[in-house]
Amino acid sequence: MQIPNAAVDRPEPGLPAVTGETSMDNAFLGNAIEIAIVTADHRRTMEGLVRLGIGPWRVYTFGPENVSDQTYQGRPASFRLRVCFARSGNITWELMEPIDGPSIFADYLERQGEGIHHVAYDCGNLPMVDRIRAFEARGFRCVQSGKWMGKNHFAFFATDQATSTVFETYEFPADFEYPEPESWYPAPPETVDPRVR
Fold first, then answer.
1. pLDDT category of residue 156 using cuts at 50, 70 and 90
2. For the segment 49-68, what is each residue's pLDDT rounded down to a tens digit?
3. Which of 54, 55, 65, 163 is the most buried (most CB within 10 A)?
C-alpha cells in the first residue's frame, strides 16, 4: 500500500495538470522520432555506431545550395553541415558535423565538445507554423532553422537551459523522397549479403 506524500502528490499552483500515467494537459510534442549527435568527425562516429549495429548511414552535405530559408539565432544565415542519417527501429539517428558558417552545432562543439545534442519530436504532425508557435508560447525561441530540398522544414529551439538538451521538430511532406546520398556507410542497402538473414 502506497502512503500518500502530500508534498509530492499535491501539484504546485500554475503547473500543467497530470491527465494520466504518461500524459499532461499541455502535451504537444507527440512522438520522439530522432536522436542526434554533434561530432567533429562524422566518419569516426559512424564507425563506432556501426559496431553497435546502427546503420547503414546516408551521408549528405547541407548548405545554401540545398537548404533554403537558413536562420541562426533568429536571423538569416549561411551555414554548411555534414548530416548523416540511419534508422534503428522507430528512431532516426542523426550525426551533425559543422563545416562552416554560424550554427548551434558549432557552438556546442566549441562549448562542450562532442555528444548527444538534440532530440526531435513530430508534434503530432501539426503544421510547422503551429509547432513553432507552440514552442514559443512555452518560452522557447527558434535558434536554427531551414528547409532542406525546399520541402523538409526543420527548426531547433533554445530548450537547453531549461532541459539540458535542444529540442527539434521537422516536417517531411507526404511526397518527400530522400535524395541519393553523397555516400553510404558502410555500404548501400543493395549490397546486403543474401546469406545474411
1. very high
2. 999 999 999 999 999 999 99
3. 55
Domain 29-174 sits in CATH at 3.10.180.10
Residue that is written with C-alpha cell 520522439 in the block: 32
pLDDT score recorded for residue 162: 97
pLDDT for 197 beyond 50: no
Cell triple for 71: 536562420
Residue 6: the pLDDT is 47
| Separation CA 28–CA 26 (nearest Å) | 6
Pair 155, 148: CB distance under 8 Å: no
Decide: 168 and 48 in contact? Cβ < 8 Å. Answer: no
How far apart are alpha carbons 32 and 121 in whole angstroms? 4
Lookup: cell for 2: 502506497
**Tell me, what amino acid is at 143?**
V
Of 90, 91, 104, nearest to 35 by C-alpha is 91
Distance of CA 129 to the CA centre of its chain: 17
